[in-house]
Design goal:
The chain is mostly helical and 96 residues long. The protein is built from three helices and no strands.
């Protein structure tokens, strides 16, 4: 069956409008799950803030933890170089 073609699909033996509706409903279900998870994440950050933690810094750490080590190391090196070039203290200076 060609893209965008809503003719009968012999491989599944289902009318195309049935397949289309099922796919749309699956996407809608996933969207509902995403919305619920987004609400959960907001609650977690609100809880962290109530404990006196900084959600912005937590997001940075979460983003960095998701990076591959090589990418994270590259980013750290660039931050250090740019900081030195602008006369700004670098986080790497604290290690020295």
């Amino acid at each position: 069956m060609a893209k965008g073609n809503l003719e009968h699909d012999a491989t599944t033996n289902a009318p195309p409008h049935t397949q289309l509706k099922a796919l749309i409903e699956r996407v809608e279900s996933v969207n509902e799950d995403i919305a619920a998870l987004t609400d959960d994440r907001k609650e977690i950050f609100a809880e962290a803030k109530a404990f006196g933690l900084n959600p912005k810094i937590m997001r940075i750490i979460i983003r960095r933890r998701a990076m591959e080590k090589v990418k994270r190391d590259e980013q750290d090196a660039l931050v250090h170089v740019y900081s030195k070039a602008t006369g700004t203290p670098s986080p790497a200076d604290a290690d020295e």
